[in-house]
Amino acid sequence: MSAKNSNSNSAKNSTNDTTSMISEASTLNNRKSPRITTPIDYKALHECAIPRNTDMIQKMEAESYLKDIIVSIENGIGLTKSKMLHMLRSDNYFLPLFIQNKEGLGMIVPDSTLSVQEISDKIGPNNLVSVIDGESNEDAGQWSLQKWAKYYHSQDKKHIYNVISLEISRTDLGNSIKRPTIVEKSDLITNCWPKRKQKVVYYHVLSGEKVFYLIPPTSKNLRAYEQWCSSEEQFLLVFNQFVNGQVGRVVLKSGNTLIIPGGWIHAVSTLKDTIVIGGNFLMLETMGIHINVYKMESRMNVSETYRLPYFLSICEWITLNIEKNLKSIKNSKKKRK
């Protein structure tokens, strides 16, 4: 969960095998990056000893954005996996899909009136969540859900904190959530990984508002992203300056769903106190990009905490599953003869 106007950049190859929720409180700051870069003196930054790019969002909003790199549909009625892949297929990657409302998606989520206090009551007020300081981007330690709920609902937030993720699997709340059918049928983890369930493979806003800035996962853009992440001035530069305007923008409000294929670089601005259910997923059709991102994360020494768990093992199971299916097809043909 997190609170308002947090800004972050990431190239996603990850998926969680649990259902998680995000609640964010807005503030014009960068979420701390899990990538290894030149150390930044956050204390000096906070005290203005280091120039701070406080108008990052304004600069991004002043840009013109491409409209044809995001596919938008009203709802999921009649949407199948094959139709989705046909709509989203581009030259060398798949496009993000924005869905106005969840009708026809087969998705079940809590009502938009769900509060953080209710989440605390359902999950357990003594459960701990990791909190990030929105001003310094540093770890603010672990809070009880009850403490977080009290802070989140307070009218006078003198300091901004974020909770990036709350695992709710194996809880009544988690069991009441169902992801979109098209994601269920596309997800390699569900189809190839034994005895595991993937529940968080979409990004759905229950309440609040977020702005996504999306950059295609071309080889050139991924190289630029890797260079940007390695720069000691990472937090002082707006990444879209390095991709020649190849940026899409989409606003997510309550009831909207966004599906982001693997590898897409994206920044997120949280404009209002927001509660989200979300994650990313693996598709066979985009495995090439997933592998490229995995290699990039290895070069960047990204912590395993922030990477797709068991990615290489998943690849092995995918290979075994394909081999098994091919043998089955081959045996079927022999029987027909």
From TrEMBL:
EC number(s) from the headed UniProt entry: 1.14.11.27
Domain of life of the native organism: Eukaryota
Catalyses which reaction(s): N(6),N(6)-dimethyl-L-lysyl(36)-[histone H3] + 2 2-oxoglutarate + 2 O2 = L-lysyl(36)-[histone H3] + 2 formaldehyde + 2 succinate + 2 CO2
Listed GO MF terms: histone H3K36me/H3K36me2 demethylase activity; metal ion binding
Biased composition (Polar residues): 21-31
Domain JmjC: 155-298
Cofactor(s) for this UniProt protein: Fe(2+)
Keywords: Iron, Metal-binding, Oxidoreductase, Transcription, Transcription regulation
Compositional bias of kind Low complexity: 1-20
The protein's enzyme class: oxidoreductase
Assigned protein family: Belongs to the JHDM1 histone demethylase family.
Protein name per its UniProtKB record: [histone H3]-dimethyl-L-lysine(36) demethylase
